[in-house]
Write a structure and sequence with these properties.
The chain has eleven helices and 15 strands. By secondary structure, it is an alpha+beta fold. The protein has a 15-stranded mixed sheet that branches. Helix 6 crosses helix 11 and helix 9 runs antiparallel to helix 10. The longest helix has 20 residues.
Amino acid sequence: DRRALFETMSDITIKEVSAKKDFREFLRFPYSLFKDDKMWVPPLIADEKTTFNKKKNPALEFCDYKIFMAYRDGKAVGRIVGIINRKSNQIWKENRVRFGWFDFVNDIDVCKALLDAVADWGKQNGMNEIVGPMGFTDMDKEGMMVEGFDVDCPMSCYYNPSYYPLCIEKLSYTKEVDWIQYQIPANQPVPDKVHRINEMIKNKYDLRVVEGLSAKQMAKRYGAKLFDTINEAFADLFGYVPLNEEQKKFYISQYFPFLDKRLICLVVDNNDEVVAFGVSMPSLSNALRKCKGRLFPFGWVHLLKALKNFENIDLYLNGVKPQWQNKGIHSIYYAEMNKQYIKLGSKMAIANPQLETNQAVNIWEKYDSRIAIRRRAYIKTIE
């Protein structure tokens, strides 16, 4: 059965995942790999299942994928997902296969066998490059950690040990792009100069910050507009594919129910259109470690407590429409959230990954901050 036995390399067997039993093993593999690693943040198994469910995840309408597991002596030693995003290849005029959900024991042969399985599948489908780690869309986790292994990862980002990049670079994979994540003391006051400039910007361009709405009301009134802003703001960034209407609904239903209105800032113009936004949440990393991937029977209790603990903040999403960039608009939403962090007693915040070349929304030089984590997408020509 070709689907069951894909390739044998040395003493490593690569199997394509097709049966439910094998899919469960694919989902659970990181739990055994990282059982002694205190830095790993487990995902919720239910969320992972949704991501790979064609009936629930609209991105799978234009993405093909294959899941592979690596075994040695019958024991799982690695996993990987190969993805062909047809929209991305069309928009960017590329023939690339992506790899994601990439985890393996500290063995370069396992790393190579898994990547070769994806590359071979990609070649069979006309692809000439392999790139990753990436997901189905930019809303999925992407980028392999190459710096910052001692920093607590947000739940929305990949964690990997330091041997991952060492192995992949030995296999002649090279840097395609880097993302950087800033760490910012969340209790530092907004500089007076920033506050004054923000007020001038709002007055000059007739902008206002949305106030007085619950997170649910924000979702209903501004949810779709927020993702419209994302589509415009991210349009020219690496590998981005605009979200369609079904995807917008999917992500609104996924994210907004857990948001606290105090940690959201929407900046709108005089037509009530979202021109910029920032979305943050209390860190759920420790709660997810306690949950061990499951909401029941008691996982939800840990998450509920974490949602009320504002000591550490994760900045999840932010964006500014292109025509409003380079006007200082991005400073408004962070300053507003910064004020809330101080009120809530927050101590530290970590920003979402941003491309190192994307300086249009970089406000961190105005604050006490440091680059805490660097992530990398690797690429290689398929021969």
